[in-house]
TrEMBL record:
Every Carbohydrate kinase FGGY N-terminal domain range: 29-252
Gene Ontology BP term (one): D-xylose metabolic process
Organism: Brachybacterium phenoliresistens
Leader sequence residues: none
Domain spans labelled Carbohydrate kinase FGGY C-terminal: 289-487
Top-level division of the source organism's lineage: Bacteria
Protein name in the entry: ATPase
């Protein structure tokens, strides 16, 4: 069910001498702070990856909130950059002393409140926190727009309604990408795609929605802060606009050794949803993308408005400011990764030790031998709550009827099905009820690195062709590097739109593998999803009865 679409030629060829390009300070750097890894990608003008770096990290549940400390943010950035610089030396014999442009992206949403001196007022509250339901409901009704639990404005109202002491001292709200960008450049700005996860964006796609800002500001709890939201929220920029330059302090933050020189052009900081769209060139109407990692989201660029506000659908924007319907899920690959670690332990026990990474390809391929409905096995991958399915506190579960066919292929297929279960639930609303037209869905993330497996399952789940290009495993760091390169071109005088730049400069010379839905697989997934949804009360009850670590 797959074929390779080889795009037309004519794009710039990759750099003939990467070492000379790097030595001349002409490469572009993208950094993304994801849920489990901080990744860096260094690219040339054509988007060819010259080197990558990474740093593993994990969020922590502290005082009832999922968080990362700023110390971990700083240390992780330095570790990731050091890994990149080391690989540049090993692969190209060059020293990474300067880049032409640089951009930072990070997991979207959440709550990062700063005082007048720029100090953090309360630990960073990530997108995984789902205790803002009452505040989000008040805002959704007031603003006539779905305000998700994880949006910054919902977190702000939640804190204000709870009488949290720090609220009266808030001078600024930002996102994780915005925070890092300010440390690198001294400028408090935000790309419009990331900003659209803080508060609704106006119809012009370039500014905050003034009418809705006024309505929110009139809420007694927000009015009592003493500063208008227009002062608290960051300045919005669209892709390609000047977002500052790397300062001396910013260069030292990334590279304490002092090798990295300041002066790089900085792109507007973006969210991981926006970089996912760029990494798949899915920024035109009737295109969309899926980004799959610890969480997952689908972004579909809209041709028009939805029929009404939908609780399951977020309205955000592309990095260029065009309207997008977003289906976001808190859970995707985390539980699947945990099962692969267990199977890795088993391989060691029987004297054939394999690292988890070595097991993905053979076990994923085995999953395709499973029955179309996974033999009656249902996997809930809920390491945290899941708003798409109304689960307040998640508990990973594998359930089956007595007559289910419990085989290894079915087990693996059920876990892959479960990785996309919440996403498919939300996409049913968008595609079947709202009748949103979607020609092709582009996918990226490590789960798609095993050729044709997760891609086929997602195509079956959504009954939509799914395309993966050869950058599928690069993810958002690569997308952010492309935004940085585009910003360098725009600030140097280019008049190309982001869509034109991506089509003609980046993706014209890349090949794409497109997988069509398999009728048998699509019907099997539909039956599986019906059973998955029907049994959700069991998952909700598990959250009530099985204590988490903090309450044991």
């Amino acid at each position: 069910m797959t074929h390779d679409d080889v795009a037309p030629h004519g794009a710039p060829s990759p750099a003939a001498d990467p070492a000379a390009l790097i030595g001349a300070g002409a490469a572009h750097l993208g950094i993304e702070l994801g849920s489990t890894r901080i990744k860096a990608a260094l690219v040339d003008d054509a988007g060819t990856v010259l080197a990558t770096g990474s740093h593993a990290w994990e969020n922590r549940l502290e005082d009832g909130s999922w968080t990362y400390s700023l110390e971990d943010v700083h240390a992780g950035l330095q570790s990731c950059y050091a890994d990149l610089a080391r690989r540049v030396r090993e692969q190209h014999g060059a020293e990474l002393a300067q880049v032409r442009s640089l951009g930072v992206s990070a997991m979207m949403h959440g709550y990062l409140a700063l005082d007048a001196e720029g100090a953090l007022l309360t630990p960073f509250r990530t997108w995984r926190n789902t205790y803002t339901g009452e505040a989000a409901g008040i805002l959704s009704e007031l603003l006539g727009r779905n305000i998700p639990l994880r949006w910054s404005i919902a977190h702000l109202l939640h804190a204000a309604r709870g009488g949290e002491e720090h609220v009266s001292r808030i001078a600024a709200l930002t996102t994780l990408a915005g925070y890092v960008h300010e440390r690198l450049s001294g400028r408090r700005v935000l790309g419009v795609g990331d900003a659209s996860g803080m508060f609704p964006i106006a119809a012009d796609g370039r500014s905050w929605d003034a009418e809705r800002l006024a309505k929110a500001q009139a809420l007694p709890e927000l009015e009592a802060i003493g500063r208008p939201l227009t002062e608290i929220l960051p300045e919005i920029l669209v892709a390609g606009e000047d977002a500052g330059t790397l300062t001396e302090d910013g260069a030292r933050l990334l590279d304490p050794s002092g090798t990295l020189r300041p002066g790089a052009v900085l792109a507007a900081p973006e969210g991981d949803a926006g970089t996912g769209m760029v990494a798949t060139s899915a920024i035109a109407p009737r295109t969309g993308n899926v980004s799959a990692g610890t969480s997952a989201f689908a972004m579909v660029v809209l041709e028009g408005e939805l029929s009404a506000p939908r609780e399951e659908v977020d309205l955000v924007t592309t990095p260029a400011g065009d309207p997008v319907a977003m289906i976001h899920t808190n859970n995707c690959t985390g539980d699947l990764d945990a099962w692969l670690r267990v199977l890795s332990e088993f391989s060691g026990l029987i004297g054939s030790a394999k690292e988890p990474g070595e097991l993905y390809a053979p076990l994923f391929e085995l999953a395709l031998q499973g029955e179309a409905d996974a033999g009656g096995l249902i996997s809930y991958n809920y390491l945290s709550g899941e708003h798409q399915t109304g689960v307040e506190s998640g508990r990973p579960m594998l359930v089956r009827a007595q007559d289910a066919r419990f085989t290894l292929p079915n087990l693996l297929r059920a876990h892959l099905y479960g990785a996309f279960g919440a996403l498919a639930t939300g996409m049913r609303i968008l595609l079947e009820e709202e009748k949103v037209r979607l020609d092709t869905l582009y996918a990226h993330g490590g789960i798609f690195s095993t050729k044709g497996v997760a891609q086929q399952i997602l195509a079956d789940a959504l009954r939509t062709p799914v395309a993966v290009d050869d950058s599928a495993g690069e993810g958002g760091a690569w997308g952010m590097a492309l935004l940085a390169a585009y910003t360098a071109e725009r600030t140097a005088g280019s008049a190309a739109s982001l869509d034109e730049h991506l089509r003609t400069r980046i993706f014209a010379h890349r090949s794409t593998q497109t997988t069509a839905p398999d009728p048998v697989g699509a019907e099997g997934y539909a039956r599986w999803l019906d059973a998955y949804r029907a049994a959700l009360p069991v998952q909700r009850l598990a959250g009530e009865l099985i204590p988490d670590k903090e309450t044991r």
